[in-house]
Amino acid sequence: MIRLKTLLEQTEIALPKTYAYNGHIVMIDPISKIDYHYELNVDLIKDITVSIKTIDLKNRDITYKHPITGKLLTAELNPADISKISKQYKSIEIGDSIEGLKTADDRELLLTRIK
């Protein structure tokens, strides 16, 4: 008989430890401790790569520097997108992307694995 706690752990999605490093996002798998590096493209006028200042998946916030104006912008990530990132970040190959993400204010996001 599988204990309820074990069953819940198997079905629950563990959020990776996430932080900003040199303008990109680093996600560390909580089990294997392997790190995955991603750059973020935001559809402001057209897809542009932005410099990440802070990211917090648990609170669904991301702060990035606009490459043209230099202003810091904060966006709220959708809960469904957090789930999608948590499920896919380990399986994306270098150069491939997690697509179809949007902020709460409807800005399109693209996470591309760079390392």
Question: Can you walk me through this structure?
Answer:
With 115 residues, this protein is α+β, with helices and mostly antiparallel strands. The chain is 16% helix and 44% strand. It has one domain. The chain has helices at residues 4-11, 79-88, and strands at 17-21, 24-28, 35-43, 47-56, 61-65, 72-76, 97-102, 108-113. The N and C termini lie far apart (41 Å). Mean pLDDT is 82; it is low at 1-12.
Topology at a glance:
Elements: H1 4-11, E1 17-21, E2 24-28, E3 35-43, E4 47-56, E5 61-65, E6 72-76, H2 79-88, E7 97-102, E8 108-113
Antiparallel strand pairs: 1-2, 2-3, 3-4, 3-8, 4-5, 5-6, 7-8
Radius of gyration: 15 Å
Residues in helices, as a percent range: 10-25%
Question: What can be said about the biggest beta sheet?
Answer: 8 strands, antiparallel
What would you call the shape? globular
Number of helices: 2
Q: What is the end-to-end distance? A: 41 Å
How many domains comprise the coordinates?
Answer: 1
Order of helices and strands: HEEEEEEHEE
Regions with little confidence, pLDDT below 50 for 5+ residues: 1-12
Instruction: Tell me the β content.
Output: 35-45%
Count the beta strands.
8
Structural class: alpha+beta
Characteristic key phrases:
single chain; 115 residues; alpha+beta; eight-stranded antiparallel sheet; 8 strands; globular; disordered N terminus
State the gist of this model.
This protein has 115 residues and is α+β, with helices and mostly antiparallel strands. 16% of the residues lie in helices and 44% in strands.
